[in-house]
Amino acid sequence: MSEESENKIKTGIEDYYAIKNGKKLRFGYTTGTCAAAATKAAATMLVTKKTVERVEIMTPKGILLNLEVLEPEIGENEVSCAIQKFSGDDPDATAGVMVYSRVSWSKEPGIHVDGGLGVGRVTKPGLKQAVGEPAINPVPMEMIKRAAEDALSDCGIAEGLSVIISIPEGVEIAKHTFNPRLGIEGGISVLGTSGIVEPMSEKALLDTIELEIRQKHANGYDRLVMVPGNYGADFIRSECNVPDEALVKCSNYIGQGLDMASAEGIPELLFVGNIGKLIKLTGGIMNSHSREADARAELMAACAIRAGCDIEVARKILESLTTDEMLAVIKEAGLLEKTMEIVAEKVDFYVNNRTRSDMKISVVVFSTVYGVLCTTGNAKEWMEELKEKYRR
What we know:
The protein has 392 residues and is α/β, with parallel strands linked by helices. The chain contains 14 helices and 20 strands. The protein has helices at residues 3-8, 31-48, 138-154, 170-174, 179-182, 202-218, 230-240, 254-264, 275-278, 296-306, 311-319, 323-332, 336-355, 379-389, and strands at residues 17-20, 23-26, 28-29, 54-58, 64-68, 70-74, 78-84, 98-106, 111-115, 118-119, 121-122, 160-166, 184-185, 187-188, 196-197, 223-227, 247-249, 268-274, 360-367, 371-375. Helix 6 (202-218) packs parallel to helix 8 (254-264) and helix 11 packs antiparallel against helix 12.
């Protein structure tokens, strides 16, 4: 998009930003949002045979975007167009890439979505998508299908559509990611849970976490609930009805988040996180980003060995792609409870060793498949108190 056209027509993202160190850091939108917007525009053009210059798309976060449609190609039975990814001030490898959607009529009813050039293909079991499916995460997949359905509904048509999402630059970008190791070949994953990219500058993010902790303490939250991100927030919300405004999100910076809470003088802290991140704490890894360390299988295997598993079970754990797959192996061996006891023991040691302060730290480790796996400290009692406090 040219600077001139950007000044003429707002996309809808301009009013959203974070202020960090006196600077405005702009929000952006995800590859999933781009794919959905391109699909809506292409489907509309397929029906109307008229060029669409801009398209509106509502993101799961509730932000309505008005995006420029690029490179439209209108055929008799097929239309293709693109949306350019805008990542705001987030250091994102996919910033500026073109996300294409090619839409055509389908003999089968419904919306059928597949991946084209630059969208990864799942080659190993254990991911959210089955082997052979495109690496399009559930929320973007739902956004794409809904966008196509909305376009047809707006035109009063109920027909089947075939949608192919392509990100040509994804072929090269994927070579610098963990995707091949995870069993995703040929491109990148189409991601996004909120549809919006929030700026993740490390220093800015750490400053925000620290500020949030100070604000919570100043507003009477002596007992702080901390989560890494949306999974932890969704879990504690579903279990105890805890609202977002009562939580502090520390992203991958678990150790630094604990340090900040301790330095602020928080007396008690409840940390709630998914096993995928918190298994790393059993090895003293306090930054859970995969760039820092990705030893999930090794650490899970170590805990299972301590629980008494044999070499074959350990090998299966090491060959698993996801922590839920690892848990299934351990459960089948009849060692899930004992292994989680060891996980709790190790997590408890390392989080308290990190701060070495009077702050009482309790931890809840959960899985989206198995629920609460283990707890430390007085986490169980605290969760019951939260249920009572935020009872509907």
